[in-house]
Amino acid sequence: MKLQFATQNEGKLAEAKRVLSRFGIDVIGLPVDLWEPSSGEIQTVTMEKLRQIRRMGYDRVMVDDAGIFFAAYDHFPGVLTKRVFDRIGYRGVRKLLEGEDRTAWFEGCIAVSWDGRTGLFSARTSGRILDPIPDDIRPEAGLPFNPIFIPDGETRVLAAMTPEEQMKHSYRSRALEQMAEWLLNQQREGFHLFSR
């Protein structure tokens, strides 16, 4: 089974390939530029991306959106995660969280279009932001919060873990697994309809 992933983020694409290969799903990158709303929930943004990619004529395609949320702020940065980090970097995050609750969580959502049907899958990873954030820290390509996010039950940041350890804490991995099960069900149902 082949599935296109509309993303320009190589880190997300690599994780999707790794997770979905276990289900016999071959992920093919589709590097298109999609407009992202600057307000609303992660699920709303994900569905907007799916509408755009469908209007371009694609089916059997997935999109995703994700963000980090700080408990100290209401629904922030959320859907603005990439824009906020691009503008303020670690220095700004350090200032935002100075003297504040460091509790944080990643939330991600995947939407898929398969033969005209739509599936939507969400997951979350809870943890906290490193305190203090070192001055010399460098972002991980496409995943800038991995070097400062410590998942619940751990003492190390995500960036310090092996890929296998990271997968245990990956909200995206859990959402991808949910999607894979849905896709396999769609395929089975299609086969039964066709074979009647």
Automatic annotation (TrEMBL):
InterPro entries: ITPase-like_fam, RdgB/HAM1. Pfam families: Ham1p_like. Keywords: Hydrolase. CDD domains: HAM1. Belongs to the HAM1 NTPase family. This is Non-canonical purine NTP pyrophosphatase. It comes from Polycladomyces zharkentensis.
